[in-house]
Structures are given as structure tokens and as C-alpha cells.
Design goal:
Blueprint lengths: L1 E3 L2 E4 L3 H9 L7 E4 L4 H5 L7 E5 H9 L11 E3 L1 E6 L5 E5 L9 E5 H13 L4 E3 L2 E8 L4 E7 L4 E6 L1 E4 L6 H6 L3 E17 L6 E7 L2 E7 L4 E9 H9 L2 H12 L6 E3 L4 E10 L3 E2 L2 E3 L5 E2 L7 H21 L7 H29 L4 H15 L2 H11 L14
Parallel strand pairs: 1-12, 2-3, 2-13, 3-9, 6-15, 13-21
Antiparallel strand pairs: 4-8, 5-8, 6-7, 10-11, 11-12, 14-17, 14-18, 14-19, 15-16, 16-17, 19-22, 20-21
Protein name: 2-octaprenyl-6-methoxyphenyl hydroxylase
Pfam family, one: FAD_binding_3
Pathway: Cofactor biosynthesis; ubiquinone biosynthesis
């Protein structure tokens, strides 16, 4: 059986669904391929994670018409408090200083994932759930893709362009044999939610320790999402101790700025590493989001970086389509890759530097970084640059959504 599309998107996660929504009124014939069922995605443990959405990301989601339906489930970050445990340095960022309502928002991944999947299913996109990519081959005029459905049947489809948005274990990337550069941090992220005795007042806390950063992100009521980085050995111990022992260590690390903390969700552990694909493009295929880059959670830049991948790709594909051009044109994809590599390099470099600078207790280095934090707190221009970076506004991207 042969089906023809203009574009095939592999992966019905946030990146894949965002791209489908950005192109929904373009007239392009689009197929969205996802290995899991909607039910499996809905109950995935990964849906429990809290996402820190930069203000720039929220702007893009709003352009897509995707923000209004979940805005009431998100918690605004109005202040960011950065500190170094056991040292004097601190920096405070405030939305009001930038003349904005919020620096970003925190939302449970499942809420926004399900909402966006619902929106995509209301478009003309052909959604092929429980369908996996078994093979692909780029030709002169099309990319040919072999699909295997849950009932064992096969489909052979082709398109001008294939977009791999299928996450960190990307099948598309593996089939293309694109190598990855992997940097092991020797750290594991412990993720949970706590209830605090005192209100969080919409403050996101980033507290650096000698073992790695600890973030508490404001969510509903007096709850905060916790992303706590420890060594692998420490994390294994902390994931297995009693709730009381876990909380005692967390409280000792964070302090009592929010009063006494109580667990409000199960604990989960995720090993951390920096993973970056050596190429974004191969033939008539481009990979985006976590298929290309997986970052340390410090500063919460990973998801926001992936959305910027989507924004630029959608804009370039729309321009190409309006000119009746080939979506898989090699020059187009090379230009896209070149532009995105600049953002990837800066964001990954910043994140990696922060991890290395703050995940140790070297006294001379601690003195330098704390002096820097204190100085930053008193330099409005420098603070504004950092705030714009945190808000995802350092590099402006085109608006998504319907065109005039």
C-alpha cells in the first residue's frame, strides 16, 4: 500500500505536535507517526515531570492557539532566586523589573501534552498511533519510509521531508546512523513534588550545592516541583530511604525558606548526561528536539530549546511551500541546521558551564562565582541580559500560527 505526503513527522510528543499545529493551515498533507497509543502516552511516568516554560516558549504556544486551553493549569514564575549553598552569593530576578507578568511558567507535562495532542487530532493531520518506523531511505525526489502498525500490517509511505521528533531514543536518528557526542556528568536527577508550610509566592529557587543544583519550582497552592541533582551513589541511597529521611536531607540542603516540607508525589530518578547529535540533517530527514540534544536540567533550557527548533523549522517550511519549493531541498535543510546550531551551541555551552562551575566546592572557584553572583545582583544591565536569557528572549524567533 502506498501513501504520499508532503511531510511526515515521527513522534507525537510536544515537539512533533507543535510542528503539526504550526503547519495546520498551510495546505500541506502531513502524517504524524507515533509508536505508542494515546492511552500509553497518557499514563507514561514521564508525564509527571514539571516543565519550566520560558516566557518566549509561552509566546510561541500562544501563537499556535495552544496556550489558552492550559493556561489555568500553569503557575507563573514571577521571581527567580539563585543562591550557592554555604556561600554568600545570590542573584534575584523579578518579572516586574522587566515589565512583564511572568518570567516563565511551570506546568505538568501531561497536561500540555494531552491538550496539544487533542488539538492536532482536530486538524487535517493524519495521526498514525501505534505505528513505528521500521526503515527509511532518502531518494532524489522523496524520502521513503517503511511503517509497521500494531496489528502487524505494513505501510510504505513517502514524502518530501521526514522530521524526527521522536525523543532521546530516536528511532529515526538510529536508522540514519547519526553519531552522538555524550558527556557524562556522574549525576542523577531526583524528581518529586513537595508541599511547603509557607507559600512559595511564585518564586523559583535555584540553589547550587557541591553535588549539583537543587531547583524548587512553584506549582499549584503551596506545592513546588523538585529537581534535585546528586551523585549516582547519593541518588540511589535517597531514592530508597524512608520519606522522613529523604525530607530531612532535602530540608538540610534547601533550608527553611519555605518552612517545613512534606512529600506530595512519588520520587523518581533520572541519570543525567549531555547528549548532542553530530548532525541534524541526513538526506531528506531532519531531527529536532530531544532527538538532537538532551541537556542537564539546570536552568530548565532543554524543552525551550526544542520548541525553538520547531519555530524556525515551521517558518522555513512555510516560506518554502509558499514558493512551491521542495520541502526536502538540501540547501534549505543545510541553512536550517546552520542557524539552529548557533542557538544549540550557545545554550548547551551556557548550561554545561553552569554545571561545571557550580557542581563543586573548590574554595577559590567558589569565591569567584559568589563574587560574580553578588556583582550580577547589583548590575541592572547584566541582570537584564540574564533575565532575557532565562525568558528565552535572547534570540527572537518568528511568530508561529496562521499567516495573513
Amino acid at each position: 500500500m502506498q501513501h504520499d505526503f508532503d511531510l511526515i513527522i515521527v513522534g507525537a510528543g510536544l515537539a512533533g505536535n507543535c510542528l503539526a499545529l504550526a503547519l495546520k493551515n498551510s495546505g500541506l498533507k502531513i502524517a504524524l507517526v507515533e509508536a505508542n497509543s494515546r492511552e500509553q502516552l497518557r499514563h507514561s511516568p514521564a508525564g509527571d515531570r514539571a516543565l519550566a516554560l520560558a516566557a518566549g516558549t509561552v509566546e510561541l504556544l500562544n501563537d499556535l492557539g495552544a496556550w489558552r486551553g492550559v493556561a489555568d493549569k500553569a503557575t507563573a514564575i514571577k521571581h527567580i532566586h539563585v543562591s550557592d549553598r554555604g556561600h554568600f552569593g545570590k542573584t534575584r530576578l523579578a518579572a516586574e523589573d522587566q515589565g512583564v507578568e511572568a518570567l516563565g511558567y511551570v506546568i505538568v507535562a501531561r497536561d500540555i501534552e494531552q491538550h496539544m495532542a487533542d488539538l492536532v487530532e482536530k486538524t487535517d493531520t493524519v495521526c498514525l498511533y501505534q505505528t513505528r518506523v521500521a526503515g527509511l531511505m532518502s531518494g532524489r525526489d522523496a524520502v521513503n519510509v517503511s511503517l509497521k502498525q500494531h496489528d502487524g500490517s505494513s505501510l510504505n509511505v513517502n514524502a518530501q521531508l521526514l522530521v524526527g521528533a521522536d525523543g532521546g531514543n530516536s528511532t529515526v536518528r538510529k536508522l540514519l546512523e547519526i553519531p552522538q557526542q555524550v558527556t557524562e556528568y556522574g549525576q542523577t536527577a531526583l524528581v518529586t513534588t513537595v508541599q511547603s508550610a509557607l507559600p512559595h509566592r511564585n518564586i523559583a529557587f535555584e540553589r547550587f550545592t557541591e553535588f549539583g543544583p537543587l531547583a524548587l519550582l512553584p506549582v499549584a497552592g503551596k506545592q513546588s516541583a523538585v529537581v534535585w541533582t546528586r551523585t549516582h551513589e547519593q541518588a540511589e541511597t535517597l531514592i530508597n530511604v524512608s520519606d522522613r529521611e529523604f525530607l530531612a536531607e532535602l530540608q538540610n540542603c534547601f533550608g527553611y525558606r519555605l518552612g517545613e516540607l512534606k512529600l506530595a508525589a512519588p520520587r523518581r530518578a533520572f541519570p543525567l548526561s549531555l547528549i548532542r547529535a553530530e548532525s541534524m540533517v541526513s538526506g531528506r530527514t531532519v531531527i529536532i528536539g530531544n532527538a538532537v540534544h538532551q541537556l542537564h536540567p539546570v536552568a530548565g533550557q532543554g524543552f525551550n530549546l526544542g520548541i525553538r527548533d520547531v519555530a524556525l523549522l515551521a517558518e522555513m517550511l512555510l516560506d518554502q511551500h509558499e514558493r512551491n519549493g521542495d520541502l526536502g531541498d538540501a540547501r534549505l535543510l543545510k541553512n536550517y541546521s546552520r542557524q539552529r546550531q548557533q542557538d544549540h551551541g550557545k545554550t548547551i555551552g551556557f548550561t554545561n558551564s553552569v554545571v561545571k562551575l557550580f557542581s563543586n566546592d573548590n574554595l577559590p572557584l567558589a569565591a569567584v562565582r559568589n563574587a560574580g553572583l553578588t556583582m550580577l545582583d547589583h548590575l541592572p544591565f547584566a541582570k537584564q541580559l540574564l533575565t532575557r536569557h532565562a525568558m528565552g528572549l535572547a534570540d527572537r524567533l518568528p511568530k508561529l500560527g496562521d499567516r495573513e
